[in-house]
Amino acid sequence: MDVYVWLPVLVTGLCVLFALLSTACPHLAQDCSYMLKAALFGLRLERYKRRARFYSILDCFLAAVRKHPHKPFIHFMKDTHSYSDVDRQSNKVARALQKEAGLKEGDIVALFLGNEPCFIWIWLGLAKLGCAAALLNFNIRSKSLLHCFSCCGANVLIVAEELCGAVEEILPALKEKSISVYVLSDTCSTDGIKGISQSIARAPDEELSPSLRANVTYQSTALYIYTSGTTGLPKAATVTHERIWAASFIQGVSGVTSNDVLYINLPLYHSAGFLIGFTGGIERGNSLVLKRKFSASQFWDDCRKYNVTVMQYIGETMRYLCNTPKRDNERDHKVRIAIGNGVRADVWNEFLNRFGNIYVRELYAATEGNIGFINYTRKVGVVGRVNYLHKRFFPYALIKFDIEKEEPVRNADGLCVPAARGEPGLLVGKITRKSPFVGYAGNKQQTEKKRLRDVFVKGDLYFNSGDLLKIDHENFVYFHDRVGDTFRWKGENVATTEVADILNMVDCIEEANVYGVAVKGHEGRIGMAAVVLKEGRDFDSTDACRVVTNYLPVYASPRFIRIQSLLELTGTFKMKKVKLVEEGFNPALVRDPMFFLDLVKKKYITLTQEIYDLVIAGDIKL
């Protein structure tokens, strides 16, 4: 048959076939586009891993320095630092720490810093020496701070000058372990803390030899990022160089290019700000706007000032922006993509209606997890889609979960039961070479708790995400809830056992059961505790406030306390929480005495119906 006859027929047939498929599968084009992008990024990573010398995100940064040395890399307040500026500054940091602290490949250094450019060039300097960094949450104090430092095995601590007071509290314990502490100032009068700023300023800024990090591979630990678990103190999730690459690709998958300007107002000690924001910016070769902390009133002005085109968010970010007074110019900006997680569908819709047609890339992921999703469509309220290629390379499933017993449902053969379509189920990811679960530094017990065995066949091994998700009939994936003894508030994970341990330090409290409760108009759950008082004691509202504010970050402090005569236990002696969570903190429904943490009066005050109504109406800020 003549080519001029069969070619048009073939083309027409293919067009008809694609049209039929698109009608039956309206998201086919988006699914294919996502699969193609993901496959290309995956191939890139495999190439980097197979090189004679592993090509790290640091090597990517150095390539960007050579390609566009004068391009702005970090905008911070009134200063702009080019790629070359940051490179030279990180060289000075590396040489100063090499000389003063004797750092070498394989050493671990803890960073106790806020959001500022030095955070970035200090990490790059450490990477040039082949060192791993532990990113400490600057809100933690006392026991938690010492624990987070100790569990990662660091022998050096670098602290911001304004955080020195928190370090001084644990300094005796650090001295006992012969830990070197350096503060980012010229001098320090505290014995055991040395100023490092002058050494950095005097150090040469010449390039360092790659031989200093010659043994770094994709499996080497690059970071420790802390995550609150179901029990106890924060856990140090081990982040390898391979995982840094995987997280840095999220910007590319989301459609971000080298011409974009990304606004980072999330803390750099979190995986979102550091991995998706900072290292993602290196992978793309774009410019970053760094903010000390999020400010709703300054947000859009900053976006206009720096020509921001990509923003990061958590659910609270969008809610705060939607709560700002309306302005005539609030659509006058260049933001086209928003990357983040945890936003409710109603806030999502309001955000789009007010601020324009921004492409919201809602995602689901965990720092230590081996499975994640990203919403590459414009459907509101979802975290992603079931995608053949994704599931082929990173096998996962949703399984039935017993909320009361806090464990997966198993059949007569002892195997887990898949959740039905539309039914919330526990997300589990199969642990394989391509989707490993590395675990937590210095915590084999908690690492093992996240491993789920005999899921679908005897001997298989899955990562237990601790989260309930659901999949609808169109293959869209939704986040449903967090399970276990962890809740999320103000974008932070809170471990209830850690909070309970602090409450037990209050002299009048015998026992505490901590949980998170929903508050109308807020994302996540706020902290609440049911407590039993010591015999013959009244609730000391001032002492309770003193203890929680001294030992807990604001986001982890229980805002509501409920006094009970006894705490209900399960058959296995676990504290019952489900009923308490459902009952919440409404005085009209709860008979027990309840108190509200008043941070202005610095004590817990009686929770009246009037206070409850003001909280629900949003007149009392939480």
UniProtKB/TrEMBL annotation:
Residues 498-574 form the AMP-binding enzyme C-terminal domain. It is a multi-pass membrane protein. It is found in: Cell membrane. It catalyses: a long-chain fatty acid + ATP + CoA = a long-chain fatty acyl-CoA + AMP + diphosphate; tetracosanoate + ATP + CoA = tetracosanoyl-CoA + AMP + diphosphate; a very long-chain fatty acid + ATP + CoA = a very long-chain fatty acyl-CoA + AMP + diphosphate. Residues 63-376 form the AMP-dependent synthetase/ligase domain. The keyword Transmembrane applies. One of its GO terms (molecular function) is nucleotide binding. GO terms for biological process: long-chain fatty acid import into cell. PROSITE patterns: AMP_BINDING. Its EC number is 6.2.1.3. GO terms for cellular component: endoplasmic reticulum membrane; plasma membrane. The keyword Transport applies. Belongs to the ATP-dependent AMP-binding enzyme family. NCBIfam families: PRK08279.1 (NF006134). This is long-chain-fatty-acid--CoA ligase. It comes from Bagarius yarrelli (Goonch).
